[in-house]
Structure formats: structure tokens, C-alpha cells
Task: inverse folding
């Protein structure tokens, strides 16, 4: 069973996606700070094949296993922007087809089935056109 869910709502376009998410052990202290702040929600910005949303999470541990290259389906905390990022393909910083952040990020979770992220191609390439990204806990029995 998934640890939490990611809901992406494309306001103004016929788009709604709900994804199962599993916590990662890559950055446990930052993961715990993000988990304590749930639910997190905001209007997303698109940067290549990445959506990010600003959060109230402000973690000083910005180097806890921080990295530039992340796996497809990674949900990462970006300390430079106090943002939560969802990666599913290349970004303007990518060298090849790998997802790559603009500056080091801390992977806190992964989408259980990243293949469904291909549906995000309907979201505008520049900005996100009112798309909302929400990470929320799953209540017991949900």
C-alpha cells in the first residue's frame, strides 16, 4: 500500500491524475519534515518534464544526499526554492534524457507507477496553466 498520494489537477484542461506515492529513505530528515507538513498544495510551474510547487517547508539540511540527477517519478525537495518537485523526463538542465534538477535536490518519495506520468504531456510546457499539485497523506482504510 502506498504511503501517500499525489493529485495533479489541470484546471482549465480536461486533466486529473491521482498517483500512489512511496516514501524514500534517501533523505530521511527532509522526508520527515515534508511528511509533517502534509497536505502540501499549490499552483505548479512546469520546467521541461518537471512540475514544482512552492512549499512552507524550509529545511536547513539541504545537503542530505542531495543530487542533480534523479529517477523518473522522483518527488524531491528543492532547498534553493523551498519547493517540491515531480520529475518524469528531461528538463532544460538534462544532458541526455534523464531527469535533472536545476540545482541539487533531495529525493523524498517516488511515484509507485511512473508510466502514468506520460499523461502530463497535456500540461503547458511553459508555466503550468493553473495546474495544481497536491501531496497528501492517505488515511487508514483509504
Result:
Amino acid at each position: 500500500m502506498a504511503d501517500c498520494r499525489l493529485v495533479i489537477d489541470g484546471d482549465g484542461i480536461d486533466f486529473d491524475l491521482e498517483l500512489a506515492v512511496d516514501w524514500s529513505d534517501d533523505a530521511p530528515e527532509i522526508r520527515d519534515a515534508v511528511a509533517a507538513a502534509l497536505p502540501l498544495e499549490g499552483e505548479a510551474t512546469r520546467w521541461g518534464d518537471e512540475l514544482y510547487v512552492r512549499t512552507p517547508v524550509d529545511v536547513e539540511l539541504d545537503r542530505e544526499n542531495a543530487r542533480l540527477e534523479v529517477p523518473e517519478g522522483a518527488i524531491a525537495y528543492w532547498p534553493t526554492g523551498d519547493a517540491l518537485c515531480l520529475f518524469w523526463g528531461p528538463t532544460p538542465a538534462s544532458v541526455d534524457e534523464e531527469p535533472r534538477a536545476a540545482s541539487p535536490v533531495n529525493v523524498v518519495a517516488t511515484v509507485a507507477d511512473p508510466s502514468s506520468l506520460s499523461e502530463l504531456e497535456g500540461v503547458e510546457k511553459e508555466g503550468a496553466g493553473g495546474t495544481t499539485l497536491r501531496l497528501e497523506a492517505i488515511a487508514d482504510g483509504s
Helices lie at 28-36. The chain has one helix and ten strands.
